[in-house]
Amino acid sequence: MLPCVIRQVKFSSSHRFNRVQNVLPKILGIYHRNLVTSVDPSNGLSEEQQQIYKTALNFAHQEMRPHMAEWDEHEVFPVDTMKKAAALGFGAIYAREDFGGTGLSRLDASIVFEALSQGCVSTTAYISIHNMCAWMIDTFGNEDLRKHWVPQLASMEKLASYCLTEPGAGSDAGSLSTTAKKSGSDLILNGSKAFISGGGDTDVYLIMCRTGEPGPKGISCVLVEKGTPGLSFGKKEKKIGWNSQPTRAVILEDCRVPISNIVGKEGQGFSIAMKGLNGGRINIASCSLGAAQASLEISKDHLQVRKQFGKPLADFQHNQFQIARMATKLIASRMMIRNAATALEESHPNHVTLCSMAKLYATEACFEIVNTALQLHGGYGYLKDYPIQQYLRDIRVHLILEGTNEVMQMVIAKDILKFK
Fold first, then answer.
1. Largest interatomic CA distance in the chain
2. CB burial class (10 A; 0-12, 13-18, 19+) of residue 318?
3. Which of 115, 325, 408, 416 could form a disulfide with 356 if both were Cys (CB 3.0 to 4.6 A apart)?
């Protein structure tokens, strides 16, 4: 069953009216249907989406933000807190409802991740990766895999990791070398994956591995459960941010799993991985957006309270201009993200490019917003007593993962210039 709050939001009559109300903009080709008009993230959202945002934001403020510095300093993976988030419907947000998913849209998910990341970017980013894995199993897995795993992932009783990157295959994912060779009714996996979020602490791993010919068409997606003989993990990586989630290498040495653990069809793995990343790019950009929103609000309060030369910092025109630029970048980022999320949900022909554009622009613009917020705080911004430095450290990696921003430019240029 859906959590009560989300069920009420999802099935209200005004939500159905909102869908009808949006038909005309769709006909006109306007994909961002709910325009954002101010720095308030709830503006432009339907009544139901505002309730979803408020639910997620309240959870972020009450259950996450009071602990985010501690989680960062002591590298705590807050599993109990994430299970509480799952109880609100945030464990499998856009998975189908028949096996426990919440059944919301990609735009709804973006709103949730934006709100939660104001409480802790690092934890929210892991939740977004877990959601991506749940969606992949729900969308491409056979009925047995769906029935077994989706309910456990939706409740976050079991946690998932996405395993694409390798030590020698990062941006060039199509050249990955991890293999899965058939042996009777099983597959035997050998290879390693690098920079895996949750690695070693999570319960299920979606491994992109080579089952066939060289190149993308020879890649399959295989589900491997923790505890399977031959599955092991590297050392816990020391990172400048994202410290509330562990990162380790995933190592496969003659790891045997049933062929029925292939998610989707054999040879479909690269396509599944890329489709997962389209949503992942929206999700991670939304996490950057939440950090930027929180940093702008903190900076506004700081400028109005902190005095220099006998007057509040807010009275200095330079600081006013900085706030104006921060707010403008925030709104532009939000509109791009929400537009791309809607395009992805509705399979718009340009959704891949729009997702790449949103990820490219928003992660860079939001990093600039948070960096400016730190500068406006002066020396205080550099102290760990203040949250902005943690937002800055946590969102820096967003320019790298889910496809580096350099790769995003390649994807966008390829579409615009129409070359192969």
1. 80
2. exposed
3. 408
If you write DSSP's letter for every residue of 133-159 in order, what string do you get? Answer: HHHHHHHHS-HHHHHHHHHHHHTTSS-
Q: pLDDT tens for residues 13-44?
A: 344 334 433 433 343 343 445 555 579 999 88
Task: Enumerate the β-bridge partners of residue 186.
Answer: 183, 258
**pLDDT higher than threshold 80 for residue 51:** yes
Name the β-bridge partners of 193. Answer: 250
Helix/strand number for the chain, H first, E second = 14, 10
Q: What Cα–Cα distance (Å) separates residue 186 from each residue in 13, 182, 262?
A: 49, 6, 10
Q: Give CA–CA dist 276/198, Å, rounded.
A: 17
Q: Measuring CA to CA, which residue among 135, 164, 138 is closest to residue 344?
A: 135
- Across 337-365, average pLDDT: 97
User: CA 247, 394, 159, 192 torsion: positive or negative?
Assistant: negative
How far does Cα 211 stand from its chain's mean position? Answer: 28
HEC-encoded secondary structure of 176-232:
CCCEEEEECCEEEEEEEEEEEECCCCCCEEEEEEECCCCCHHHEEEEEEECCCCCEE
- pTM across the whole model: 0.92
